[in-house]
Each structure stands twice: as C-alpha cells, then as structure tokens.
Amino acid sequence: MKDKKEQKYNNPFSAVYTGIAELFRKYEPAGELKPDDRLDGKTVLIDGASSGLGYAVALDVARRGAKVIMACRSGIPGKGEEIKAVSGNPDVHMLPVDFTDFNTLRRLTDEIRDHYAPIDILICNSAVVTRNSRQTKAGFDEMFQVNYLSKFYFINLLIREKVFRPKTVPRIVVVSSESHRNPDDFEWDSFGKYIPFGIGKSVEVYGLNKLYLTTFVSELSRRLNPGEQTEYSVLSLCPGPINSNIAREAPKIFHPLMKLVFGIFFRSPAKAAVPVIYLAASPDLQGKKFDYLFLMSRKEIDPKAADPANGKKIWEKSEELLRELLK
Length: 327
What we know:
Blueprint: H1 12-23, E1 43-47, H2 52-63, E2 67-72, H3 78-87, E3 92-96, H4 102-115, E4 121-124, H5 142-160, E5 171-175, H6 202-224, E6 233-238, H7 255-265, H8 269-272, H9 274-281, E7 290-294, E8 297-298, H10 303-306, H11 308-326
Parallel strand pairs: 1-2, 1-4, 2-3, 4-5, 5-6, 6-7
Antiparallel strand pairs: 7-8
C-alpha cells in the first residue's frame, strides 16, 4: 500500500489541496502555443463542449479558423450561437449526445460520418464527478461509463466508421487527470461492476476511472501505430485544477467555500484550455505517436498505465463488456 501521504487524490479535500500546490510548482514547458497555430481547413470534434473547459476549447479552435462540431448533452443551440458570435466563425455546429447512453453515441457517429466527416482532430473532454454512485441504464456506475467506457466505445466507433481524414495523421486528444496515478492497482475483479459508494470515495473512484482511461489511451496509440510510421497522433493531458462546474454535485454547504477557493486559486477554463489547444494545433506535435502533458509540461504517464500488459487487458475487458451490452 502507498503511504497515506502519497495519496494525493483520495478525498475531495486532499485533491483540492494537491491541485493548488501543483499550480505553484515550476515546470519546464513542453512548448508554446502561438497565435499563428491556425486550424483553417480542419474539422474539430469536441465533446462536453457546452460549458467549462470544453466550451473554452471550442471557442479557441473556432477563433483559429476550424470547422467546429460541439457534441453536448445541453446548451443546444445557444452555446454554439454564442461561439459563432464571439469568434466571428459561422462554421460552428452542435450535435446532441449523452455519454450515459451508448445509443446516442452510435447516432452521433452516424451523423458525423454522413454529414460532417472527415474529422481532423477529436478532443475527448466530457467528464463527471458524482457525489455518490449512480447507476446508468446500461447498469454501470455513471463515472465509469462517462469517464471511461463510453470514450473507449466512441473513439473506436469513430475509427471503425472511418470518419477521420484519410491520408493524413489525425489527432486524438484525450483530457485525463494526474489523479490516474493515485490507485495502487487496477481493480480487475470488479471492472465494470456496479458497486455502490458514498461521497467519501467519489474522488478515489474518479482517479481509478482516469487510470483506466490513461491506460486505454496508451494502448490505443500502440494499436493504431504498430510500425515505424505514425498513423494517428494519440495525445493526452491533465489540464490542472479548473474553476469550472465539475464539482457541482458537492454538498451545498461547501459551495460558498469551493467557489471562493476555486475563484482565487484555480485556473479559468480559458487558461486551462491552452495545453489542449497546443496538442490539437501546434506543429510541434506533428508525427508524434503519443504524448502526455501536465499543464504545459511533458510527463511520463504512470507505469501501470504505460504497461502493455495492462493495456491489452483493459482492451479485452472493455470489449467483453460492450459485446455483452450491445449484442
């Protein structure tokens, strides 16, 4: 077991403290996002784009000239109209999706394939932190489905339906979290099983799902790029603590304090979006098979997530869950 001092993200208070502390550390930047890192002529698909980090990313890529597809559960069409007005880019589109519902992911993929493809850049951003366990229609915990399994399904579906631009190197950018380092190990025996939990374990469960996600992303790069040539750039990052609404389900008694702390110490969505846009737009990443950033600093992912044996195992277990669900 890890020493408790090393458990940085095992409850909401330690997670907030760690997030603040990390912002004051000095890191060597991996590169610089420049105003002339344009996206003219490219199509960018962003999920979870109606608020917070996703909205800030959508606005930035629209300003850089991209055709923008915002896949959201809410805010349609108002948020897209806002981005059109603020960015001056009329080529912004909103499509409905709910990451707790696999059927909507299938419909979204069909819509993109038939009317919006080819896609140059996918930015997987949607995430949720629930205050306790919550079972979806498919029988999974909501955090497991939204933060991991639906992403596994959606990304593979987009690849299988060939929505990415051919004869190029598309970029798949996945927003993860440094909390993927916190679990001692994978919980293979209970993988995908709905196990009730309370608020005391919500951040711990979130970290476990981010470990699953980061392991998948690492394995995805290996599978998409088996040879010397880069077929897809698979890129991931932790944007750091953000002053957004991801913690909206925290007990209401803590909301005034959280609003104060987040407002003073956490970064705005616009600032937190910089490493996301860097991975999506910068020529520095051209031809890269895999990369991971924390803020704007390059880091190795946790060894558990980088282990090909774990990547193979999580891929097989995820396919098994989906096969049973979708047959």
